[in-house]
Amino acid sequence: MMMDRRYSDEITPEMDGLKVTVAGWVHDKRKLGGLLFVVLRDREGIVQVTLPKKFVVPEVFETARGLTKESVIRVTGTVQKEDKAPNGYEIIPDGIEVLSPAATPLPLDPTGKVEANLDTRLDNRVIDLRRGEVAAIFKIRDTAIEAAREYLRSEKFVEVQTPRIISTSSEGGTDLFPVAYFEKEAFLAQSPQLYKQMLMGTGFDRVYEIATYFRAEEHDTIWHLNEVTAVDCEMAFIEDEGDVLVVIENLVAGMINAVRERCGKQLEILGRELNEPRLPFTRVRYDDAVKMIDEAGLKVPHGEDLTTEAEKKLGEIMKERGEELYFVVKYPLRIKPFYTMPDEDPVYSNSFDLEIKGREIISGSQRIHQYDLLVERIKKKGLNPDNFGSYLEAFKYGIPPHGGFGLGIERFIMTLLDLPNVREAVLFPRDRKRLTP
Hints:
There is one protein chain. The protein is of the alpha+beta class. It has 12 helices and 16 strands. It has helices at 58-65, 118-123, 125-128, 132-154, 193-199, 241-262, 264-270, 286-295, 308-320, 371-380, 389-394, 409-417; strands at residues 19-32, 35-42, 45-52, 72-81, 89-100, 158-159, 165-166, 178-181, 184-188, 206-214, 227-236, 282-285, 325-329, 351-356, 359-366, 402-408. The strands form 3 sheets. It has an 8-stranded mixed sheet, with helices on both faces. The protein has a 5-stranded antiparallel sheet with strand order 3-2-1-4-5. Strand 2 (35-42) and strand 3 form a beta hairpin. It is elongated.
């Protein structure tokens, strides 16, 4: 019965003589003299199944000899200690059952011995995900998200789920995917922003969700996707955006440390070492960042958002100072969304980005909680307040001071692991060219 199945990492050499059942994919097969070796791969690693022709039932030997790579099999046999085998043991089989044969030839090599380009890998993602180094990325991603939940719940954040179908833009932009919604105009959500703010008036004064963003931007870069996952948070009764920065520091440090502590095997597979984050993260004012970038030889128009090139240059400058994680704060108000709280100096805003190694992974701010100021800012952005009816209505009846942020999970994993393309950090990426698989 499959209930008796063990993963490869649950078997040890000390179990010598014990009968076990394992199941997985045929990773490799080779013959050496009178021995036939089948390497079985499961979620946790590999198992060597050894078939000495003289001592194995002939039908079992013939079944093994006919196996094709990547076929799914179940093996029942006896554990035998063997120092030369992976994990220090091998299994001498009593029976091999083919659960699902794999066709040949394979569209790519899951062992990684034959390299394939990214498009080929993504076109055959199910097989690509069988590779140990690819699987390691998503085990790390799972651990990072788990750690985010652990920290936020410890800080009394409540997990929520907001709509993915909305009636108007969350950001005031035009990069929206329209959807057929009966007789009404509707769009896929750019972010849960407006709903998060509305929830600040309900008594759920600290909320988060693992959100999905849909951005109809016609980018084709290593950094952009059209479907993005994020840890999205909002918190009320703050003094200013500084309260939000403290939560971010502890959240990100907790996520990184969880990966360092729980994913040693996966980091080793990927050949990565992570530094322990130093708290607090450095705060760099926008004006100072622009000056630093200018002095490094790259001109940035003051008052404009930092370009990818400018962010990269700033990352190089900060790296020389021993800083991988840092905030850029106090951006000009005019380049920020309508809901961003103006600074005491109204040229600037109570906004921030968190950057890792020269790449932005978090954007956020203190939000406007006063109804009149919010309407004024909507109009100043050239938007029609009538399009924000339900959202604005909530601000008439008492919304406390609040702020929040969104942490892009794919970009976080990409920068953390130094992946060459953000598509490596999502199971089935969606960009302007890719709608399948």
